[in-house]
Amino acid sequence: MIDKLHKQQLGEQKAEIVAVISNKADVYGLQRAKDAEIAPIVIASKGIKREEYDALLSAEIDKHQADLIILAGFMRILSTEFVNKYLGKMINIHPSLLPKYTGINTHQRAIDAGDTVHGATVHFVTPELDSGPTILQAKVPLFSDDTSEDLRERVLTQEHLIYPLVAQWFLTNRLTMDNNKAILDGNPLPENGYADEINITYC
Q1: Average pLDDT, stretch 26-40?
Q2: β-strand 181-184 against 187-188: which pairing, if any?
Q3: What angle do CA 9, 13, 18 make, to 5 degrees?
């Protein structure tokens, strides 16, 4: 995400990642941010109630006046108040073809179910977990001898492609959220997002 967005020219403007925030101090993303001269910020969450933590997080976000909040590997459930404050300007990527397999352990659950196709979904964040309007999905094949780690790596490859793309759509004013619908180029997207018509598949 940092490589594909930070300081990249998007139309007439240049994208800038203004901060990378984590609730844990030992994550690689903070080092990547530091290497790219982006503010690495830790707001420790251990022992703090959800609402109190979200207030600290919100205050930090507001300092940077970000146009878009991109969740990546942030495993805390955000409070309704927090989500509603940033409704329509916060996106997440989830390792399944939503609405299938919300929550955790998505790869193993797809294997256990005997699925032949799996993937990832970029969606707007709403108060209900993993249920905001879908923007874009990428599908990958699931083979009979796959382990959850095999599948995780295959899906991750696609995540690295579709997540920056969606961020670019938003930052160039092509993508918005209205009435709990993802709107791309003025057109409401179907339930499965843009990938309902065009799939980015693993090769």
Answers
A1: 93
A2: antiparallel
A3: 85
- Across the beta sheet with 200-201, what order do the strands follow? 69-70, 90-94, 117-124, 134-141, 200-201
Q: Give the list of residues 6+ apart from residue 112 with CB closer than 8 angstroms, or none.
A: none
For 4-14, b where at least 16 C-beta lie within 10 A, e where not — what string? ebbeeeeeeee
- Rounded to two decimals, what is the model's pTM? 0.92
Exposed, middle or buried, 69 (CB in 10 Å: 0-12/13-18/19+)?
Answer: middle
Res. 201: pLDDT tops 90? no
Instruction: Please check the confidence at residue 82 and state whether its pLDDT lies above 90.
Output: yes
Residue 112 backbone phi and psi in degrees, to 5: -60, -30
Active site annotation includes 94: yes
List domains and CATH numbers for the chain. 2-201 (3.40.50.170)
From the list 6, 94, 107, 123, the catalytic residue is 94
- Give me the percent of the chain exceeding a pLDDT of 70: 96
